[in-house]
Hints:
Mth169, Chain: A; 3-stranded antiparallel beta sheet
Amino acid sequence: MVFKAEVRVELKKGILDAEAGTAKKSLQLLGFKNVHDVQTAKIYVVEVNADSREKAQSEVEEMCKRLLANPVINNYSIKIV
């Protein structure tokens, strides 16, 4: 069975997000004065062949640990859809 997983990878709190900082400043310069914070995230959509939802989750978890996220600077979440 094919399962689709959405993996969201974000920087951990305290890690400088220069791209988000630039976007925030630019939004404020464009007149969006109510912008309090901006954060960036990457979304990976992965389709996995697996016998069960749990096995798909486990395989995608391993993908995150080995490639998609750097545990030193990233947090990630997985949603099987």
